[in-house]
Amino acid sequence: MSVAYGLPFNLEDTTGNITDSNFTDFYQRMSFSVRTTMRTPDRSALMIYNASSTSAGRGGLMVPVACLEFQGNNGLGTIKIGSGENIEMEKYLARVSRNNSLARKFTASDGQEYTWTYTGTEDAEWTCANNRGYAVSSYSLKSEVEPKYEHSSGCMLYIDESFPHIAGELLASLTIMRHIAKYKL
Known about the structure:
Radius of gyration: 16 Å
Strand content: 35-45%
Number of strands: 13
Distance between the termini: 41 Å
């Protein structure tokens, strides 16, 4: 059983890019790495690793918590969470309404439904709530008035302390949402 501190996980996004970044909690409670593992004209692949742990069964190598494969021309492709099946991203992250692609819901491995919504506010560019309306995560960009940081983008992913069990899924779904927004899908 883990110790509760009453603090959300504050995961610093080192680059602010959708791909190739690290997300490390200020208090070293968890860390993730997002890496591009393949890029061709027809497709690209991202792996999200839990950098806090390794798997002895894989010779000490990090095992991806999520695999994201995008189609050519930055189109959506498939997502695979852990050892689960590949699922089309459009099905995994279903639109909440037909005319808004920046509000989408997914069912996590804990069986709960979560919804990411683009807010575009300075406090939180993206927010994620469960089906009871409880805010479980948010992603914030660095404020324009903040100084430039060495070794950090200033962007932050916050995850409520009660949801470490789906942290990898929250990061994977956020990565897809940011991709959808960037390429206006």
